[in-house]
UniProtKB/TrEMBL annotation:
Domain AB hydrolase-1: 36-269
Entry-linked Gene3D superfamilies: alpha/beta hydrolase
Coiled-coil boundaries: none
Keywords recorded for this protein, A-Z: Hydrolase
Name used for this protein in its record: Alpha/beta fold hydrolase
Matches recorded under Pfam families: Abhydrolase_1
Domain of life: Bacteria
InterPro entries: AB_hydrolase_1 (IPR000073), AB_hydrolase_fold (IPR029058), AB_hydrolase_sf (IPR050266)
Molecular-function GO terms, alphabetical: hydrolase activity
UniProt KW Hydrolase keyword: yes
Length: 287
């Protein structure tokens, strides 16, 4: 079994989409006339983070899991990866695939980007799902751990560093799928252009850059889209009170906490997450 076995019964396309001056890697599935759902991964992540979610969602929705700007196999411009640039790239992708409006599902950095997009472009965001979202606080210890673990994984040849980086995301390591995801990430991290661009991908882990990109309560108060916050009670990058503060800041937001779960609730607890997400999307589509 591999992570791609999850897609065995799905008619999907592994695509490269021209989004302005950037070529964007995407996994697309589901009815072409369905409502668009876009899945956005975390810092130095890639679209495989949602491999366990596409089949269930593609039964009804037009799904897009993308490698965000500078990540995975998407183009890597030599400029700092800050939130407005990620949002611009996301909007260019929506334009390229003809999505005037989309439901956004963002994990970690992806939630930060999705929230910012919803605050800037309310007419284009049908709903928000924020999975262990980052970007609301400056925590030097967490930022330094992320920088160090990612640099080791990308710049050292020993694959154990990549495995260690991935294990940070899980409360309980899945040996089989975890090992395959480790190899996928190792191959991405050891592309020369990824290594050359690493400082740009880690820009938001520097205090000054993070400060000017923080997702503050006043911006979150602008969000009009129905919002679901999903959190793992063993999330190593942010405890439950952070999730509660996010939920309180976004009008009408709802919080769901998964027990024995780390930073990837959509992957680690897919059996809980998928029906929760689908029910939320159905309710959001009806409004």
């Amino acid at each position: 079994m591999t992570i791609w076995t999850e897609l065995a019964g799905v008619d999907y396309r592994h695509a490269y989409v021209e989004t302005g001056d950037i070529t964007t890697r995407a996994l697309q599935a589901g009815p072409e006339d369905g409502e668009h759902v876009v899945f956005l991964h975390g810092t130095t992540g890639h679209l495989e983070a949602f491999i366990r979610n596409i089949p269930a969602h593609a039964e009804r929705y037009r799904c897009h899991a993308i490698d965000m700007l500078g990540h995975g196999y998407t183009g890597k411009p030599d400029r700092p990866g800050e939130i407005p640039a990620y949002v611009d790239h996301l909007m260019s992708y929506l334009d390229a695939v003809g999505a005037e409006r989309a439901h956004l599902v963002g994990e970690s950095l992806g939630g930060w980007v999705a929230s910012w997009a919803a605050s800037e472009y309310p007419d284009r965001v049908a709903s928000l799902q924020l999975l262990c979202m980052g970007g609301t606080r400056i925590n030097p210890e967490v930022m330094e751990r992320l920088k160090k673990s990612t640099r080791n994984a990308a710049l050292k040849e020993d694959i154990s560093y990549t495995r260690e980086r991935l294990r940070l995301l899980w409360a309980e390591w899945d040996e089989d799928l975890g090992e395959e995801l480790t190899q996928v990430r190792y191959d991405i991290y050891h592309q020369p252009d990824f290594q050359q661009n690493l400082h740009n991908l880690l820009a938001l882990q520097e205090p000054e850059a993070r400060e000017r990109n923080l997702l503050r309560p006043d911006r979150m108060a602008w969000i009009k889209a129905p919002t679901l916050v999903v959190w793992g009670n063993k999330n190593p990058f942010g405890a439950v009170p952070e999730a509660e503060a996010i939920t309180a800041a976004i009008p009408g937001a709802r919080l769901e906490i998964f027990n024995e779960c780390g930073h990837w609730p959509q992957h680690e607890k897919a059996d809980l997450y998928n029906p929760l997400s689908l029910a939320f999307l159905a309710a959001s589509s009806a409004t």
